[in-house]
Write a structure and sequence with these properties.
It is a single chain. The protein is an alpha+beta fold. The chain has two domains: 91 residues, Macroglobulin (MG2) domain (Immunoglobulin-like, Sandwich); 149 residues. Strands 9, 10, 11, 15, 16, 17, 18, 19 and 21 form a nine-stranded mixed beta sheet that branches. Strands 2-8-7-4-5 form a five-stranded mixed beta sheet, with no helix packed on it. The longest helix is centred in the first third of the chain and has 28 residues. It is globular and about 65 Å long. The N and C termini lie far apart (79 Å).
Length: 278
């Protein structure tokens, strides 16, 4: 009798483990990938959302929802192709597209196949331009910095090897901002493998006494990029973004050295050096 009970126990245990492994495997493959055609949209743009489901079910659409904070802005049910791909487009205009900021896209296919992503939305589309600017690496080609600017245009982006920085030349005809998409493998700010803040300096004249430190907003972070938004004023011409790392050829510096260097600049020009947007 004892041997019989032990066999029953072993069978039940084996079945339990098998069922658990099956559910874990199902959860592992039940995934949704979700992307947008751009990180930034403006009033009147078409927000294109696309992706893939790992497990396809015949005649089952995926539900796409767009939120601003807790407010539902738009929703759509999209058919999924047999290869698992899907695409949807939303026209970003109307009474619900009135708030600027971060919008969240949520895609749900099944109770276990859910994904989210975000994008930035601005209500005004005037005086803006977007592009990717190739930054020259001495004797080593280029790397790309993506940007969107409102209120002006970008003329040039260069490296400053001494400061471990990028210098952006702009022509600002009104107050606005610039959004920079910075590739981590070429330019970053870290301390002990942990993200730290960039130092942002603005100048209208490109001389040491005129540079002003400004605050910025980090609007997106991934393993490949850091995307930051910097406020600008009419007449701003030079933006210096100081990090701790500029491509392998020029190595890295610790944040302590960076802070000391910038602090020295502040002391030298303290009569004219100020911080905007406290």
């Amino acid at each position: 009798m004892v041997m019989y009970n032990n066999r029953i126990f072993c069978i039940i245990l084996t079945l339990t483990l098998c069922i658990s492994m099956i559910f874990q495997a199902a959860e592992a493959v039940d995934e949704v990938t979700l992307s947008t055609s751009s990180d930034i949209y403006y009033n009147g743009d078409h927000v294109v959302i696309f992706g893939n489901v790992s497990t396809f079910f015949e005649n089952l659409p995926i539900t796409i929802q767009i939120y601003h904070e807790t407010n539902l802005v738009s929703v759509d049910q999209v058919p999924v192709a047999k290869d698992g791909t899907f695409v949807s487009s939303f026209y970003a205009t109307g009474s619900k597209w009135k708030d600027e900021g971060t919008y969240t896209v949520r895609g749900q296919y099944t109770p276990t196949q859910i994904a989210e992503t975000t994008f930035e939305f601005f209500s005004q589309a005037i005086d803006r331009s977007s592009a990717v600017f190739p930054v020259n690496i001495p004797n080593s080609g280029t790397f790309d910095v993506g940007y969107t600017v409102r209120g002006g245009e970008v003329k040039d982006v260069v490296m400053n090897q001494e400061h471990y920085s990028l210098v952006v030349e702009t022509i600002m005809t009104s107050n606005g901002n610039i959004i920079l998409k910075l590739p981590r493998d070429s330019f970053d700010a870290q301390n002990d493998d942990t993200d730290t803040t960039f130092i942002i300096l603005i100048s209208k004249q490109n001389n040491a006494a005129d540079f002003t430190q400004v605050q910025y907003e980090e609007i997106a972070v991934s393993s490949d990029y850091r995307t930051i938004r910097i406020p600008l004023e009419e007449g701003d011409k030079w933006i210096e973004v100081i990090g701790t790392y500029v491509i392998p050829e020029f190595g890295s510096i610790v944040i302590v050295i960076l802070v000391v260097a910038v602090s020295s600049a502040i002391i030298i020009s303290k009569s004219k050096f100020s911080v905007r947007y406290n």
